[in-house]
Design brief:
- By secondary structure, the protein is an all-alpha fold.
- It has one domain.
- Helices cover 79% and strands 2% of the residues.
- It is built from six helices and two strands, in the order H-H-E-E-H-H-H-H.
- It has a two-stranded antiparallel sheet with strand order 1-2.
- Strand 1 and strand 2 form a beta hairpin.
- Helix 3 packs parallel to helix 5, helix 4 runs antiparallel to helix 5 and helix 5 runs antiparallel to helix 6.
- The chain is elongated, with a radius of gyration of 19 Å.
């Protein structure tokens, strides 16, 4: 496998070499087709959903780690302990739901395109923006009305998990 030197240097410096190898394997499967679901190929929509949700999850995880490190090292002296805890909660929930988006992508690869998986993934993605985003801004600015936006994100999380679970549960009857 040939790597672009710039990509290799970035991957080594951030220590993402194993992630890149995994993504290349999935890209190969996406391009050449992979036998999932009882030896059949994924349908076209799943082929689109699968790498997209892995990318969404990976980007959210990257942002979560970066903001978590920024909060732990750069904001410790600038924020009071309560607001620092709010910031850390945003980073934690962003990471949890970044992993959820990646799991939804794998569920789509196994179960095929299911409307519920797509809607659940979209709700979880929206929940990250509303919940974690509002907590980040609230902790850094102190604008108290932003605390009212976090429950919208929490509701998106709950609905996303519920719809994803229902979709996966229904898949057993469709096979």
């Amino acid at each position: 496998m040939k790597y672009n030197k710039r990509i290799l240097l970035i991957a080594l410096s951030i220590r993402l070499d194993s992630l890149i190898l995994s993504l290349e394997r999935w890209r190969s499967w996406y391009t050449n087709g992979s036998p999932f679901r009882n030896g059949t190929m994924m349908d076209e929509v799943s082929r689109e959903m699968f790498p997209r949700y892995i990318a969404y999850g990976a980007v959210h995880a990257l942002i979560s780690v970066a903001l978590g490190a920024f909060g732990a090292h750069g904001l410790k002296e600038r924020l009071d302990p309560d607001m620092l805890a709010v910031f850390e909660t945003g980073a934690q929930y962003q990471m949890y739901h970044a992993i959820a988006l990646i799991l939804i992508a794998f569920a789509a690869s196994k179960l095929g395109e299911r409307r519920g998986l797509r809607i659940g993934g979209r709700l979880i993605n929206a929940g990250i923006f509303f919940f974690s985003g509002s907590l980040y801004v609230l902790s850094m600015t102190g604008i108290s009305w932003l605390g009212a936006i976090a429950p919208i994100g929490g509701t998106c999380f709950i609905l996303g998990w519920g719809i994803t679970a229902y979709s996966a549960w229904r898949a057993r009857f469709d096979n």
